Every structure is written in structure tokens, then in C-alpha cells.
Target: Glycosyl transferase
Amino acid sequence: MIRIFNHYVSRTGLVLLLLEMLILQAASVLTALIWEGQGLDPHAPLDLVLSALAFALVNAFSMSSLGMYQQAVREDMRTVLARIVPAFVLGFALLSALMHVVPAIHFGPARGLAFVLGGAGVLFTRVLLFTSAQSSMMVERLILVGDGVLARECLALAASPDGSRRFVVVGCVPVPGEASCVPAAKVLPAGESLLSLARRHNATELVVSVGDRRSGAYPVRELLDCALGGVKVTDAAHFFEREASQIRVDSLQPSYLIFGGGFDQSFLRAAVKRSFDLAASAAICIATLPVMLVAAVCILIEDGGPVIFRQERVGKDGRRFQVLKFRSMGQDAEIDGRPRWATAGDPRVTRVGHWLRKLRIDELPQMINVFRGEMSFVGPRPERAYFVEQLGREIAYYDVRHSIKPGITGLAQVRYQYGASVDDAVRKLQYDLYYVKNNSLFLDLMILLDTVQVVLSGKGAR
Model:
């Protein structure tokens, strides 16, 4: 993994993106040379470069929007083929629209050839990557220090198919005084030093997953020997932050938040974020204005009730405000005045509301909240005061998410399903803590791309 502006990205995914950008630009230039040949005018080189760059950027955006850079190492060819066709169809549509806005970008009748060559190049690159990803050279070998609950969680994360890297956990080193929670087959025999174990099993990293570190059995000296001997030693909290974009609350030490860096609340960060909020909200408002008008008319036709739904939510520093949404439930959804979680197949949702939620159209009026300064475009989702009070009592560090403005979209929204319980709230909080700690313009842009993918796929809506 590579850390860019405090956010961890897959090294393989980044290399793949840069390589495919070059391939797409080459496909564009080659198409122009094949089709137009010597007919290029004296100003063609500049237009050629601009057109090639636009072609590469548009298609890279389309592939990113369909998640083609999220799990590159673990993709099979069926998944690649299922995504590459709609990605290039979307790219074709976006490029055609862009050509009407920027006259210098042109492909003429050869546009289809550029997409064929670019698609073939991307497919060939992914075949090579998929083939090499099966080799042991692309696999990270880990040893977990500890065999308790935290080790079990690390074991599950390493085996998860959703990760951007492939891991093999050699085994877990038991620590005296900790109840074993991992399969017996994964427990390594005692008596050998950690450094010797790492070298014998060709492990590249030790992940310290010990719950209680105040015990005298905690192997401080052996871990130091490993670090001095060239074996990477990583704390479990850092492992989750790096590989899952989560800060785990069940095993979190306050010192990790205090001394772990991040939490940028500077004037520069605030100014950049506010500029991004206004620019993104204004652009989306303009682009989706026809959609919002149609949504409003459909709501009126269905039951004649109010189009906009207002509800009190908790924002930055615990301040309350009225969030605005297109109404997706019946007018008597909470006639008894009792707040309740939304559930899968919620009967309170109207027929129009079902599609508004599925396509995230119901969230669009919140752009007004952004313009008012009550919300950001990206941030933790604002929750109702009733649930905030309940979750604040039951979940440690829950109030940390209120140190920044809530957002229309956020890391938890694109990485986890719709929250409908306290357990869901805990899991979403772990993503929110990561965002609060590592937020940056780069991370906002990554979340915006993921949001496009979620909207196109309809994931997580209720």
C-alpha cells in the first residue's frame, strides 16, 4: 500500500491506473495516425495530445466509477469482462458529450477504433496482472503475534476477498494469558523466537494483535529484534487502518488517536474543503436539475403530499439543523412520533420513494444544506438526535464523528450497507473515524468516485 495525503491506496491499483492511462493515450494517438495519416494540419500535434489525454482521463474515470481499480489483484477474467464493456460504453457517452463542449477534442469517425484498441490494451494488461497475481511473488506472508479475539479479526481481514492485496497468514504466535480464539491449525508451536519464525516461514510482516499489552508476557524484546532484523512489525490498529480504511473501536487505545497523526483541522484544509463543497454541489445541482424536477412531479402525482422532507439532524459540534430530502416515505411514516431505523423492504417507503432511494436522488436537496454551511459534500452522515444520544451511550468514541461537518456522502456510505442497528452503527463509525483522522481533498475525490459506483450499481439503498 502507498500512502497519499494520509490515505492508503493499493500500489498495484495505482500502477495499473498509470499503465492503462498510457495505453489509452497510445490507442488514441495510433487511431489518429491510422485514420488521418498525412492529412493532419500544422496544429494537429497540440490537438492530438489534448484529445489523447481527454480520451484516457474519461475512460479511466469510467472504469474507476465501476470499481475497476478497487480489487485489481483479486479480479478474475469474468469480472473484468463484465465491467469493461459498460465502462467503455459510459466512456463513449461522456467523450461524445465532451467533444461538443471542447472543440479541440475531436476523433471524427475513428472514435470507435480508439475504443477498440484501448479496450484490447486494457484487457491484455489485466490478463497479465491476473496471471501474475496468482504467483507467490504477489502474496504477502504474515505472522500474527497473539491468538485471541483481535488475532481472529486480523485473520478474517487477511482472508477477506474485498481487500486490495492477497495475504497468507503463516500462523499465530500464542501469548500467555490470552484465551485462544483462532483455529488450532493456525497456532504456531512455542519455543522459537519471532525473528527465527519469520525467517523460516519467509514472513514479510508481523502484525501485533495482542489484546492486553500490560502483561509481562508481551514480547517487546523479540519484536525489537524483528524490527532490527529487517522484518516489518505492524500494530493491529495500523493494519486495519491500512488495509480496510477502518479504525477499530473494539480494541482502540486512546494513545493511537492522540499520537497517530492526522485530524487536520487547519485553516487551509477548511478553505480547500469548503471550496470543494461549493464547486461539487453547484456542478451536481446544475447537472441533475431535470432529474430533480421529474422527482418532484412524481412525488406530487403519487400522493399529493409535500415534496421536500425536513428532519432534525445533529451536525458539527453537536449543533442541530434541518436536513432536506425528497420525501420517500408516506406522509404518516412516523405518525406515532417514535423514531425507528429504516429496514430492508421498509413498508413506509412509497413506490416513487423506492427508486429515489435506490438511485440516491432523495439526497439531492441536501445541496442546499451544503450551501448553507450546515453540511459538507463528503463527511459522516448526520444522524437524528434520538439515535445520537443512544449510540453515544453505547459506543466508545462515537462523538468523534461530530468534530467535522456531516456529509451527503461519505466513506461509510460507500463501503458499508445502510445502517439499521447499533451493530451497523459501530461498523460505520470505524469508517467515519478513519475519515475524520485522514480527511483530505484526495480522499474526498476518491469517495466521490466510489459514490458514482454506488449510485450506478444501486448498492446499499433501502
About this structure: The longest strand covers residues 166-173.
